[in-house]
Amino acid sequence: MARENNRVNGxxxxxxxxxxxxxxxxxxxxxxxxAKKGIDYSIDIRRLEKSRIAELKSLYGxxxxxxxxxxxxxxxxxxxxxxxxLMVKDFRELHGDRCFGDDRxxxxxxxxxxxxxxxxxGQNKGKTTxxxxxxxxxxxxxxxxxxxxxxxxxxxxxxxxxxxxxDTPGAYPGVGAEERGQAQAIATNLSEMSxxxxxxxxxxxxxxxxxxxxxxAVGDRLAMLEFAYYSVIxxxxxxAILWRDGAQAPSAAAALKLTSKDLHELGLVxxxxxxxxxxxxxxxxxxxxxxETFVAKTLAQLRRIGTDALLEARYRKWRSVGQAATVNVPxxxxxxxxxxxxxxxAAAKRDSSVAEV
Length: 357
Prior knowledge:
The chain is an alpha/beta fold. It contains 16 helices and 8 strands.
């Protein structure tokens, strides 16, 4: 695959990657100096490269939940357009919900992944500022969910498996979206997707926020990229509600158990797709290849299952969600009472009760 993309510009590094930035800057300086003076610095460069890779492995092997959220939101992380360009052959986009309009935050179309003809439905964040504005920064309107469902029914009619790529902070919360039935559109998708008579694979490639993500995620297999996150609410939103302080987002992220590892251990995610060293934004091609391999392998497994057995397994999978979680209702109620009476959470004991939620 393509070699790793090294970025030395200021916008390419996260707050906790300062040492990596310093090492990459030294490497670039040695290369530039060697080119100017004709001196061979290859031994020094190799030594620095080894240090850089070791540092990346160390950092990304122990990311906190909040750091994982930052990686999932990295501006250079591959988005839907990258997967369509690199993974899908002969992609033909299908437009409109036949009701209101064509929401650019959700893209649907027919294409080929490996040797499989499939319907691809994905949430689109856009790359340029103009594209981001056009698709509400990846926050779909109800017409987007209706478009997705209409194309999924089309796929069912012609026996095409469905692959959905999830990457959204959440459904668009605007007044117009609510007036056009945002909640109903998502609820209808949940109901209808559970009954579609074709294999469905859902993959969270970046952000998986709330019902906005779940609206295209009811399938036979749910996977996540290693440093994606999937949550009922954003860490900032959770902190604003429970702590009344957005600065508590790191604590909220830890309590929400939103990382791929946490969700896999809870049985909510079926598989974790590995990312290259340092995250997907450092090697887009290898990331896309890993996703393509997972899709091809999983489709081969699902095709061997009869339709009735597939639907029964899908029903049982989603009915079982939440059975492993235990909510300490008295503790949560007590924490909320303390917030209501004092205007701030209790410091130490409150963290454990939030985690149980």
